[in-house]
Amino acid sequence: MKRFFEKTRLNPDTGCIEWTAGKLEKGYGQFCLNGKTVRAHRFAWEQVHGRIPKGLQVMHKCDNPACVNIDHLAIGKNRTNCIDAVLKGRHGTAVLTPDQALAIMESKLPPKATAKALGIDVRLVRNVLEKRSWKTLKPGRVPLSKRKYRPINPNGFPTPTEGKHDD
Ligand SMILES: [Zn+2]
Question: Model's pTM, two decimal places?
Answer without folding.
Answer: 0.46
